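Translate structure to sequence.
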């Protein structure tokens, strides 16, 4: 029995078609790279769906393969509003039937209020323009529409208590953000667990983690750091990530206790009892 493959994103489909057309044309990655005027490694990234060619490179690919503008036209449909490191993750969120996310210091993007997101973007970009921040907030809000459906994806959210305590955007913004999370949890839209400070060290202390499962393909795991992200579909790494998640979940408060702690933290922000 073959290994179940992860879900194919539009970028991966683009890359696979590029590989098939290149092979049909009798070209190696090295030969194509010489025509496109780029490195063979970059062609490899294109074919794996890890990166997209620029319009100029796509035009040269069409010329090299005799594909009459095919890859340049298709490229226009793959343009994304997300950072390159996150584009594939955003696509997979739309396909997932189960998302299990762990947040180390910040509220996960799918759950952020507009004001919380705005405060984060302003902190990331000290020389920002209001219109740029407005655009970023709209993009994040649109991404959260995946939760508009009543059933899928099933969402588990595991929060280090540091997420509740770090004041982003001021007391009222923080309180509103935490109440939103508690409301979603009480409404049954997400399963909520908090890893309290008193739990001490835990298995996910070094990184945020998102696990995604699908109805017709293998699960994936995603970890992120400053300006970098790593989407993993290697079964061994995904299994290791899931074990770490399960271990951390075992140290967390129950759903009911977690909702209560989130609501208490919201009140503490408002009344200044931190």
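Result:
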């Amino acid at each position: 029995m073959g290994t179940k493959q992860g879900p194919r994103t539009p970028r991966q489909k683009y890359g696979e078609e590029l590989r098939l057309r290149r092979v049909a044309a009798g070209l190696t990655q090295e030969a194509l790279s010489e025509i496109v005027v780029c490195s063979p490694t970059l062609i490899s990234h294109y074919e794996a769906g890890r990166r997209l060619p620029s319009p100029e490179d796509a035009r040269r690919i069409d010329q090299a393969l005799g594909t009459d503008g095919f890859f340049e036209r298709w490229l226009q449909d793959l343009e994304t509003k997300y950072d390159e490191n996150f584009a594939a993750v955003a696509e997979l969120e739309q396909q997932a039937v189960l998302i299990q996310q762990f947040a180390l210091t910040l509220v996960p993007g799918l759950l952020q209020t507009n004001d919380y997101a705005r405060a984060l973007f302003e902190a990331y970009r000290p020389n920002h323009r209001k219109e740029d921040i407005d655009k970023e907030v709209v993009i994040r809000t649109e991404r959260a529409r995946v939760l508009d459906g009543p059933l899928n994806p099933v969402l588990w959210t595991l929060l280090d208590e540091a997420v509740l305590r770090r004041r982003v955007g001021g007391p009222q913004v923080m309180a509103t953000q935490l109440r939103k999370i508690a409301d979603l949890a009480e409404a049954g839209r997400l399963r909520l667990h908090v890893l309290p400070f008193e739990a001490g060290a835990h298995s996910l202390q070094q990184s945020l983690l998102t696990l995604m499962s699908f109805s017709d393909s293998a699960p994936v795991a995603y970890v992120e750091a400053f300006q970098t992200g790593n989407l993993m579909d290697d079964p061994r790494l995904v299994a290791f990530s899931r074990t770490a998640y399960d271990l951390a979940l075992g140290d967390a408060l129950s759903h009911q206790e977690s909702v209560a702690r989130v609501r208490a933290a919201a009140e503490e922000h408002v009344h200044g009892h931190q």
